[in-house]
Amino acid sequence: MYQWRKFEFFEEKYGGKSKIPEDVSGKIECCSSGRGKVVIGSGDGTVSLLDRGLNFNFAFPAHSSSVLFLQQLKQRNFLVTIGEDEQISPQQSAFCLKVFDLDKMQPEGTSSSVPDCIGILRIFTNQFPQAKITSFLVLEEAPPILLIAIGLDNGCIYCIKGDIARERISRFKLQVDTVSDKSDSSVTGLGFRVDGQALQLFAVTPSSLSLFSLHNQPPRRQMLDQIGCDVNSVTMSDRSELIIGRPEAVYFYEVDGRGPCWAFEGEKKFLGWFRGYLLCVIADQRSGKDTFNVYDLKNRLIAHSLAVKDISHMLCEWGNIILIMSDKSALCIGEKDMESKLDMLFKKNLYTVAINLVQSQQADAAATAEVLRKYGDHLYSKQDYDEAMAQYINTIGHLEPSYVIQKFLDAQRIYNLTNYLENLHEKGLASKDHTTLLLNCYTKLKDVDKLNLFIKSEDGAGEHKFDVETAIRVCRAANYHVHAMYVAKKAGRHELYLKILLEDLGRYDEALQYISSLEPSQAGVTVKEYGKILIEHKPAETIEILMRLCTEDGESAKRGSSSGAYLSMLPSPVDFLNIFMHHPLSLMNFLEKYTDKVKDSPAQVEIHNTLLELYLSNDLNFPSISQASSGVDLSLSAKSGAARKSKAESNGKLIVDQKDAYKEKEHAERCEKGLRLLKSAWPSELEHPLYEVDLAIILCEMNGFKEGLLYLYEKMKLYKEVIACYMLSHDHEGLIACCKRLGDTGKGGDPSLWADLLKYFGELGEDCSKEVKEVLTYIERDDILPPIIVLQTLSRNPCLTLSVIKDYIARKLEQESKLIDEDRRAIEKYQDDALAMRKEIQDLRTNARIFQLSKCTACTFTLDLPAVHFMCMHSFHQRCLGDNERECPECASEYRSVMEMKRSLEQNSKDQDLFFQQVKSSKDGFSVIAEYFGKGIISKTNNGPKGTQRSRSLSSSSGF
Asked: Which residues form a coiled coil (predicted)?
C-alpha cells in the first residue's frame, strides 16, 4: 500500500475549513446526514439542522439532557434520536427513543418551532435491562415499519420492530458475545444487509464479528471471524459488504466470511465509504498526526491524502465528504470532475492509470474511447506501432476508423492496418470501403491463407462481417475468382455467382447446373438476369430449364389435384421474352413447347400474340443456316488450291440458292403454323379469340399474309373487307365464290356484297362480261338493285357492251310491266271503295236512318222503351247498356283497335329515325314513303283543320 501512487482527485470546497455555526450549542455528540441535510446532536439535548454549505437552518430541543445517537431516514423525512431525558421514577430508565417528523412543525413560543414528535419509546424495560449504548442503526422497511438495532456494552443487541407512531412494535434481543470482560463484548458496530427476502445483521465487537439471519425465527447467529474493531472503525460498502479497520489492515466481509484484506498500518480512527472509495482516518504513532486518505481500491491508488487534526465525526452529503473536528471546525472535500482528473494524468503520461480510472468509474464508452485514442497517439508518437494499434482497436465503435487508417496507410505498416480492418469487420462496423481496403491488403501481401480465413470462415458469420458485393468486386478485380464465387454462393447472391461463372470463367454447363439446383423463384430471377448469355451459348438446355420453371414438371406429382391452382402461381413465359431478343427462333421453339404442354395458361393471349409475330414475320435470323452453309462450304473444298479457286463462284451461288430455298420453305411452314394458330385460338364457342385481333390484322397486313386476313375478316363478319382483299389481288373467281358464300341472305350473309362487286366490275376498265352476267344473276334473284342503278354502275366500264345486260333488262322490264298492271288494278279498286265511302257519308249526313230492330242486340228480348239506337244499326235496352250509353258494345272493340292503330301510326310519324331506317333497309324505299302517305301519317300535317275533321268523320262512319 505504501507503493501506491498518490493523486489529488479531490479538492477542498467552500474555500477550505469552515466553522460550525455558533447556533449549534453544546458539545457535538453525534451526527447524521441525508435528504440534503446534516443533523447534529448536542450534549445539551438540542438537535441542529444544517443546509448546503453548513449553513444553519434551525434547531429544536429533542431531549432534556443529551442526544447520544441519531439517524436521518432516507425514505421519509423522519429523524430517529436516542437521548437522555429526565428520570420520572427510579424504576424507569431515562434513555428514550424518539421519532420526529421534520415535515410537520409545531410552533413553540413566538420565534421558533419544533418538529412533530410522532413516537416516544423507553429503550430499557424489565425484560430488557439497562446497559450502556455503544452503537445504533435504523433500517427502513416498508413504511411505516422500522427495524431499530441498539448495541450495548454487555454484548447484547436490543431490536425494536414495528410502527412506533402507533405503538405497534415488537422487541427481541440478540446475544452477540458472553465474554465476562465488557471491554471485549461491547457491540461497536452494526450493519444491515438486505438480499431479496433475506434480512441479515452484522454485529461487531472488539473481539468478534457475527452475522444474524433475522428472517429465521428465532434469528440464527453465525460467527464470521474471531477479530473485531473499535467504535467508528466500522462501515458498509455500496455492495453491502461490512468493512472493519484494525491497526494492521482493513478487512471486508461477506455473508460467508472474510473477503479481501488491504494491509496498511496505523490505527483506523474512522472508516467510511464514498462512491466506491474507501475513506480512512489513520493515526500515525510515530508522528502523532492523523491522516485522511481516500483509497481507490480498484485502481490501487490514493485518490487524496490530507493531514488533519483531531476528527470527531465523518459524514457524506451533497456529493462531498464532511469532516467535523473536535474544535467545531469542518472540512468539505469534493471529488473533481473526470475531465480534470484525466488532464492531470495526461500531463504525467499516465495513460494506463487514466484508462483504469474511466473503466472503474463506469464512464461512458465515448469517454473511454477518447482516453484510449490519446494513449494510442502517445504510443504512435513513440513509434510503438503494435501497441498503439492495440489501443486503437479498443476504440472501434466510437472513434472514426478513417482517423486510424490514415496513420497506417504507409506500406511499412500494412500489417497493423490489416489487423485493424480485421477487427473492424469482426465487430460488424466495416463499410464497403473498409472491405475493399482489407481485401486489397490481402492481395498486396499475397496472403492467401488470411484471405481464405476471412472469406471462408467456418463460423457461419462470414456473410455478416463484410459487404458481399464489395468483396466479390475486389476478388474479381484481383483474379481471385474462386474466392468471389465462394462468397457469392455462401451469401446466397446467385446472380453474382452466375455472373462470375458466365462472364469471367465461361462455364456455361456449370451455370446451368447451378440454376437447376436453385429454388424456382431464385432460378427465375437468375435466368431473367443472365438468360441472354445462356440462350446464345446453350439454347436447348436453357429452354429445358425454362420449361421446368414455367410448367408443372416435378411438382404435379406432389400436388395431385391442386395442380390447376398451382399453375397460376408459376412464372409466365412472357416474363422471359427479353432474353430471346436476338434469338427469335429459340423463342419460337420455347413458346411452341410451352403451348403444346400447357393448354390453359393465364398468359395464353400474350403467348399467341408473340407466336403470331414470329410465324408471320418475313425476316428471322437463322443461325443454323449459317452453320450449315459453312459446312457445305467446307465439304466442297477441293484438295488443290487451283481447283478451290475455280469452283468458288459456283459454290457461292449454290449456297445462296440453298439459303433462299431454305428460307422460303421455312417461311411457308411458319405461315401455315400462323394460320393454324389463328383458327385454333378462335374456336366457334368463343366470342373473342385467345389473341389480340387488331394486332393479328396488323401483322397479316404488314407481312402480306392474305389467308390470315381473309380468315380474320370473315370471322369478324367484316365481309366488305374480305371482298376488298380479293379485289386488291384481282382474283375474280375467288371474289365471286366469296360473294356466293357471304352474300346469301338465307345463311345470314350480306346481300349488299353483290352491289359492291357490281360496282367493282363497273370501275374495272377491262372486259369482264362473263363475271358481270354471273353477278347479275344473283342481283336479279334477290332483287338487290333497281335496274337503273345497274345501268348507271356498268356504264362506267367502257369495255362492256349492251349485250351483257340485254337479257337482264328485258326480264326486268317485263316484271315492271306486270307490276304496273297490278298497281293500276289496285288503284281502281281503292278509288271505287273510296267513292262508296263518300256516298255513305253523304247519306248519313243528309238522309234519316230508320231503325227496324225489334229485339235487343245484347239480351235478344223484345225491345221496349227506354231504348238506345246506334248509327251502326244496333239497338239495346237502356238497362243493358248500363252507364256506357255513348258507345255500341258490339262495335266498340273494332273501333278501339282502329283508333289504337291510328295512335300508333301517329306516334311512329314522330319517330324520324325509325322512318329513315325503314326507308334505308327496304329494298324499295319509295314503297315505304307511299305507305306512310296512304295511311295519312304524312298528309295529315299538311291538311289543317279541314283534313282533320274529314278524317274524324270517316272514322265515325266506319265505327257506327
From this structure: 813-847
- Tell me the percentage of the chain whose pLDDT exceeds 90: 21
Percentage, residues of the chain above pLDDT 70 = 87
CB-based burial of residue 268 (10 Å sphere; 0-12 exposed, 13-18 middle, 19+ buried)? buried
Instruction: Please determine, for residue 574, whether its predicted confidence score (pLDDT) is greater than 80.
Output: yes
Q: Tell me: do 438 and 530 sit in the same domain.
A: yes
525 grid coordinates: 430471377
3-state SS of 33-93 is: EECCEEEEEECCCEEEEEECCCEEEEEEECCCCEEEEEEECCCCCEEEEEEECCCCCCCCC
Domain end point (choices 513, 531, 552): 552
What's the mean pLDDT in 465-492?
73
CB 114 within 8 A of CB 108: yes
758-793: pLDDT as tens digits: 777 777 777 787 777 777 777 777 777 778 887 877
Q: Are 420 and 404 in contact (CB under 8 A)?
A: yes
On whether residue 274 sits in a domain, the answer given is no
Q: Are residues 386 and 509 in the same domain?
A: yes
In the chain, the amino acid numbered 677 is: L
Domain coverage including residue 861: 855-910
| pLDDT confidence band for 638 (50 / 70 / 90) | very low
Given a cut of 80, whether residue 550 has pLDDT beyond it is yes
Does 607 map to a domain? Answer: no
Mean pLDDT lowest for which of 501-510, 766-775, 930-939? 930-939
DSSP per residue over 350-404, as a string?
-HHHHHHHHHHTT--HHHHHHHHHHHHHHHHHTT-HHHHHHHHHHTBTTB-HHHH
Cis peptide before 247 (omega within 30 of 0): no
Cα four-point dihedral sign 772, 774, 777, 782? negative
Indicate if 683 and 806 belong to the same structural domain.
yes
The residue with cell 465509504 is 273
d(Cα 940, Cα 253) in Å, to the nearest integer?
132
Q: 189 with 218: CB under 8 angstroms?
A: no
Task: Select from 552, 568, 592 the last residue of a domain.
Answer: 552
Same domain (yes/no): 405, 545? yes
Whether 488 is in a domain gets the answer yes
Tell me if 341 sits within 8 A of 357, measured CB to CB. yes
Does the pLDDT of residue 921 top 50, yes or no? Answer: yes
User: Which residues have C-beta within 8 Å of that of residue 585, sequence separation ≥ 6?
Assistant: 620, 621, 622, 623, 624
Check residue 70 and give its pLDDT.
95
